[in-house]
Sequence to fold (378 residues):
Amino acid sequence: MKNLTNRVAFGCLFGAMFVFSAFTGTPVSKPVPTASYREFPFIQQDKNRISAYADQPMRRFHTALDLLRNGRRQRVNIVHIGDSHVQADYFSGHLREILQADSAFGNAGRGLVFPYTAVRTNAPDNLKITYTGTWEGCRNIARDKACDWGLAGITATTRSPEATLTLDPNNQTVLPYGFTKVTVFCDTRDATNFRVEVRNPEGVKSTVVGEGFVVFELKQPAASLNLGFQKTDDRQDHFTLQGVVLDNGQRGIQYHAAGVNGAEVTSVLRMPFLERDLGVLKPDLVIVSLGTNDAFKSLDARAFKRNYGELIQRIRRVCPDASVLLTTPGDNLRGRRHPNPDNARAAKTIAELAEETGSALWDFYEVTIGWPLPTTST
Fold:
């Protein structure tokens, strides 16, 4: 990706354009100012726009932002589904900061987080994780497994009630991410799960158990979360965490990042609790950033399009009022030597899907001067 492997990769490009488009209230923005990207001469700045093939596919999201800005709405939710750039919170993290730092919108909290390092995978720099006990991870890219994946696409399981987890969302952050409400995603119908507890010194005011989640209201705002577990029944022999949402109860935007390293479209389709978690979060905008791993070795364009279309249908069934924005993968090298022609095919397929499904499109492949689409098939 021409060394765009940090937050600037998507942040400077997508973030400024995204905010400009939101303020104009139109689905297609003007190009972002060129001064922001002088250090990236390969970028086609005139291509950096959200495209629309249908009648204002971002209208519902823009309307939600307008209501938030005018004080007629308390919360706007964004869910971003993707792969390694989203797990590391490069793409999503920079955009979250841009949106929440704007006083017209506000900061409603950190949103969805996961204790990645407890299951031996990388975490965002802005999230510090400590733990005790042994934890086993299961990711949606594991084709030989079938785990209880929710929106996060990864689970963490411990078999010891003495295990603990601590999540600090204020590590190396620009904005404060205190919280007063914690939602723990887990299978509340599973009688073999330990009982999950919030053991913060601030104290818990109330606990509500729902279908697939437990909500804790804290007595005072907290800067980090301490989770513990208790065995209350002889049948209980483990606890499986599917994700945590941190909410400060304030007016503003909440941006949930749900990414897994190496994820393909089929990885997300394997998540049995995807719809459940989307239903809890009630997003106004769902961003889907997949395709890089689907095209990494070779791309079956027909299967890719069919699977991607199924994913959009699943999102739309549970979130009929949400805007959907698709992003294409940037260019890359196959074997670190040769341009990968399948990324162009993936980008073309995603653009076709945006048109056919009435979704918005941000074509990162085109913005980064991707190599032209080959005229012959392989």
Q: What stands out?
A: The first strand starts at residue 50 and ends at 52. Residues 1-9, 22-35, 373-378 have pLDDT under 50 and may be disordered. Residues 301-318 form the longest helix (18 residues). Residues 112 and 245 are 4 Å apart (CA to CA).
